[in-house]
Automatic annotation (TrEMBL), chains A, B:
It comes from Roseibium marinum. This is Molybdenum cofactor synthesis domain-containing protein. Pfam families: FLAD1_M, MoCF_biosynth. It comes from the Bacteria. CDD domains: cinA (cd00885). InterPro entries: CinA (IPR050101), FLAD1_M (IPR056596), MoaB/Mog-like_dom_sf (IPR036425), MoaB/Mog_dom (IPR001453). Residues 13-173 form the MoaB/Mog domain.
């Protein structure tokens, strides 16, 4: 469904697969990257999940998310080691066989010195039947796309390169625009005004985000809308309220 | 259920609530913090989710997670503004009324100058009936605990203070221990050996994490177990394999 959708809203979920995130060993950076990236191209990230390297957990999450959202993007678990089980779990979730994909074999055979495309490395060529490959410019081993599920590597640099590879093929909606109004006050001081402004501008989403800087509370007010004029009108009302309350 | 559980495993999920994470405006740091924190006290984080500030999404996620895990920890959406809807959603999810909690009112009334405990600030005293409060040493407005659900602020400094407040009351399991063996090689070179070591030591979890540093691939191998002797034996086998393959 490349191109722009009729209702102007395209939704996605991001699924991080990996024990190392849940144990705290590795701090996830892929959700934040995907949130920025998808927002910038006109896809609304509606949910993110982190699940462990466990067969039933991965399959259940993929099936729950692919039924609810236009796209599911995953990161993690497609390397050559025994704990990389994402490809087989996706195949299982979608009810298709996992095959040694000739296209992936060709890419990896060309990448390794003769005789070094070992059984472990062949794991990275196991792809669910019927999937399209996602190019990996960084380390060659491809991701894949099957149905509305896009399966990418966990290493941020590789995941990001894969996002670049698939972005031109994705359907996008009308971009969500945003303006930020900083307020040098705790959010409780401006809360009632913001609620009234939100009521006056129902086609916007007004978010209030407190920050604690050296014990002093300030607030960032973020106004979001797909319509530039509506956004501007609401942001002006917010700026006016901030100015009045700062006086 | 304070104390140590009989089967030695206590599980948890972490739920981040907030449009700002899914839009990319704010990068979540609470999942990573909670992962480290819970691991260190003997609670296994088994799943994390990020959902938007939408009533049905919050309630559905809380109900799904509280049924599956010993504990659910949430962050975000308990401030004074119109977009802070977590307390009402949790009340709805648990089927209890949301009340103006006298204990929370007392804390906040004492905190603000006379006459400044405004209606917006009173929002922060709305707590599901039957909940216990969670102390907030940073900015006073309390979190709360109802059933196995712990509801905390989104601002990392406040969330972290709340974790400190509740940690002594949590049941914990036998701590998951870990050792890391670095390998100066791409993980595909050691993959077959790791699979064999994992088979030999079924009571461990062996994870292999590739890193790309300036175009050079190295690997961190993490062995985890709740049993120190089993952990040590497996880690020694991994270190031996790394040494042999490095030679």
């Amino acid at each position: 469904m490349t191109g722009q959708k009729a209702d102007n809203v395209v939704t996605a979920a991001f699924l991080v697969i990996g024990d190392e995130i849940l144990s705290g060993r590795t701090k996830d950076r892929n959700i934040g990257f995907a949130a920025d990236y998808l927002t910038s191209i006109g896809i609304d990230l509606k949910e993110a999940r982190v699940v462990p390297d466990e067969r039933e957990e991965i399959a259940a999450a993929v099936n729950a998310l692919r039924a609810r959202y236009d796209y599911v993007f995953t990161s993690g678990g497609i390397g050559p080691t025994h704990d990389d089980i994402t490809a087989e779990c996706i195949a299982e979730a979608l009810g298709v066989p996992l095959i040694l994909d000739p296209r992936a074999v060709a890419i990896l055979e060309a990448h390794y010195p003769p005789g070094q495309f070992t059984p472990a490395r062949q794991r990275m060529a196991r792809i669910p039947q019927g999937a399209d490959l996602i190019e990996n410019k960084v380390s060659k081993a491809p991701g894949f796309k099957i149905g509305n599920v896009y399966v990418m590597a966990g290493v941020p640099a590789i995941m990001q390169a894969m996002m670049d590879a698939i972005a031109p093929t994705l359907a996008t909606g009308k971009k969500m625009l945003s303006e930020t109004v900083p307020a040098d006050m705790p959010e409780s001081r401006i809360a009632e005004r913001l609620a009234a402004i939100q009521d006056t501008h129902p086609q916007t989403l007004i978010g209030s985000y407190p920050q604690a800087d050296n014990g002093k509370f300030t607030t960032q007010i973020v106004i979001r809308s797909r319509d530039e004029a509506i956004l501007k009108a609401a942001a002006e009302d917010v700026a006016k309220a901030v100015a009045e309350l700062s006086g």
